[in-house]
Every structure is written in C-alpha cells, then in structure tokens.
Amino acid sequence: MAASPTVVLDNGGSTIKAGIVRTDLGDDDEVRLIPNAVVRSKGDKATFVGHEIGRCKDYSALHYRLPFEKGYLVDWDAQKAIWDGLFSSEVLSVNAPESSLLITEPYFNLPNIQEIYDQFVFEEYEFHSYHRCTPASMIPYGQLFAVEGLQMPECSLIVDSGFSFTHVIPIINHQIQWHAVKRLDVGGKLLTNQLKEVISYRQWNMMDETYIVNHVKESCCYVSTNFFADLETCRLKPKKSKIALEYILPNYVINTGGAVREPGYELAPTDQVLVMENERFAIPELLFRPDDIGLEQSGLPSMIAASISLLSEDLQGMFWANIGLIGGNTKLPGFHERLMSELRSLAPVECDVQIYRSKDAITEAYRSSLEFVRSADFTTRLVTRAEFLESGTHAIRRKFGHWQSGDSGKSGEGVVANSSSTGGVPQLSKKPSRSRIRTTASTSSRRR
User: How far apart are CA 58 and CA 46, in angstroms?
Assistant: First the structure.
C-alpha cells in the first residue's frame, strides 16, 4: 500500500469515476460519478463544469463541450476545468503534492497525448507519483471473475463497451495481448445520436436534446434476442403492441423530469408523449449489426471470435470460458442473453462459453483499480515526480511500456519471464485453474 493518499480516476469519455484511498483516515470506497463535460444551459443562462451539472435545473437544449472526441482526450482546457473542480474541496479535496494518482487512459492512446497526460500530472498538478493504465488492465485485480472455491483465471477476455467505442481485450496473466485487441466503432454516443435522428424524423425534433434522448435510451432501449420477430410485432400493431412504450417528455417550466408512463397514469393537458416502438431495440442492434448504418465492421460477437482466433490455439478455450462485460452499454436489458446466444454458435463445440456480468458495469474498472491500489504491487508500478523531472517521458515509458512496441507494459500487469521460448506467449502457471477445469479439448483443431 502506498504511504500517501491515492486518487483513483477512471477518466471515461462520458463519466469520470473518482475516489480516494487515504491511509490516515481509512479507505474511502465511495465512488463519485462526475459528468466529463462542460455544459451551457440556455434555460438557466449559466455554464456548469463537471460536478456542477447536477445544479442545472433546465436540461433542454444543453450545449456540450466534451474533452473527448472520437475516443481521445483532445480538449485539455475543458478537461483541466473539470479536474480542477474534481480535485477541489467541493469533491475530493486533494493535496496533489502529497498524493499519488492512478488514472485510466484510452486504448491505443497516442504517444503525444500520453506525454500531455504526464505533463499535466507532474507539471500542472505536481502529484507526488502516478500510474497510467487502461481500464481493462485493472479488471484482473477486481471481483468480476471471482467464483468461490476457484482461483482467478489466468486468461480472460474483457468486452468494454463505453461512450466512444466498444473494445475486445484479451488478457494473459495481467498482460494485455495488444495484437489481438479489436475495436468496434459503436459506443453510447453513437447510439444516442442515432436515436436522436430517428426520433426527430418520426415524431419530435430532438436534435438539440442530447441529455433528454440519452435518458430515453437508458429508460426504454433493450437488446432483442429475436430481432425480426420483435420487428414484425411492431409492424402488425403500430403503437399498440406489447413492445410500445410511452415516454413522457420533461416539462422544465413546472420542473418535472421525463419518465416512462406507468399503467393507469392519467396524462395532463400539458404532457407531451414520445412513443417508443421498434426504436427500443433497433438502436442497440447496431452493436451486433453495425452494417445497418453503413459501418463496414463485423458485429460484436464476430469481433470476439476474431480476437480469440488470433491467440495461441492451446489457450483459446480458456478465453471462451472467461468473458467479462464492463461499460455502460453492457447494462442494456437483454445484452448478456443475446451475446451468449450468438457466441455459442460461433465457439467451437468442445469449448465452454461463460460470460461474467458486473454488479455495476460502469464502475467495475474503478472498483478493480481500488483493489490494485491496495495490492503490494502498486508502489512498484508508480513513477515519481523526481523520476519524471530527471528523465522526462522516457522514465514513464520504461515503466508503463507502450502498445505500439507490443509491450503490454507494467501497468499492474505482472511480467512473465522468458515468453520468447513459447512463440511470444507468456508462460502460464502450472496450478490448476478454473478456466482449465471448464475447458475440455481446447487444443483440438475443430472449428465452427
């Protein structure tokens, strides 16, 4: 355990998951969910930064300024304003020179952006030490794959479906196998934008109502396990099928929020209703059929199969048996069932397919990071400000590694000695593991 307080920052494109571990006052497990945006409200005639957005009273026609664009942190002025509020006495009350920082970064983060991360941490905020890593690299330290009586799997595959993209990340002994990482260009932002266009074309003009439409998506949408049957149901009984839902739009004049209409609720004369039919399942379907909107990519199940196929044939059965879901999109009702159904048809017959869901997929990486901070390895993975001032970014690259070099780095991932003797595949422990117990004949050459 680090001697100084440690700030844990899962810096997502939509939401920052933040907390602090203090050695003097005990562990603070409470996670703060902070919108990662600067918002201008026309109704309130005010600008809200990060944690201040909860004070907004009129969420109609909000103008968003997002630090992240296309999955990468590019607006550092906006991000600094959000971090300033987060580190202030209003939220975490951080004394940076006496604290360590663990922060997550995007997958395949660009080197020049990584350098700006380092400069902000050590030159702008002057943290004592810090560790930078991807969210998936923290998952093996958490409880996502925990099963009573069995040890944690040595091989796992993380599906991280977040704000900007959906990534498939295979991990062996805490090391990300970068050559097999896949990215699907569908995330929560694209789904919300697509829903805005569909609603605006069919019913109400909602192109400027990002906040409201995002709430509609989270309240009404689900992943269909039988897409064409649900589509036919909506076609036969428009607005009267069992799938149709009525969403009462918010009225900020009388300060009422939006909500799904409950059975028996009498509509007021001022209520405006949005009817959600096939939009409920057609929008999330893009995760499984991105070609519906012209994206020349395979769906998520095929992408998982493609990622596993790039790994050592002897280990592939272990990855099929240990698939973990994180990220906000995986919380959609029906997501797990649909993914399991399609993966079972793609996996070899002799392989067991197991998918693990988190209690809260949005904060899973944050909670796993807390476990990493409490581990004995954490202090050895830190880069101090003194090392940075002496050697610059080179000290950080030596410690963390970089995906371009094929080095999964030491961002919490244990280093496995002498992997070259097995064709670049890290050596696995000879202890019996859950993944080996579940998988039979994984070395077979049979395929679908």
Answer: 10
Strands lying side by side in the sheet with 273-276:
259-260, 245-248, 273-276
Give the Cβ contact number of residue 73 at 10 Å: 23
Token readout for 307 is: 């990622």
Residues 91 and 384 sit within 8 Å (Cβ to Cβ):
no
pTM of the model: 0.87
Query: Which residues lie across from 184 on neighbouring strands?
Result: 166
Q: Tokens standing for 217?
A: 């998506």
Classify residue 92 by burial, with Cβ atoms within 10 Å: 0-12, 13-18, 19+.
buried
Backbone angles phi, psi at 104, to 5 degrees: -95, 155
pLDDT digits (tens, 9 = 90+) for 202-225: 988 999 999 999 999 999 999 999
DSSP 349-413: TTS---EEE-SSTTTHHHHHHHHHHHSTTGGGG-EEHHHHHHHTHHHHHHHH--GGGT--TTSSP
DSSP 49-108: EGGGGGG-S--TT-EEE-SEETTEE--HHHHHHHHHHHHSTTTT---GGG-EEEEE--TT
Which of 283, 354, 345 shows the shortest CA–CA distance to 325? Answer: 354
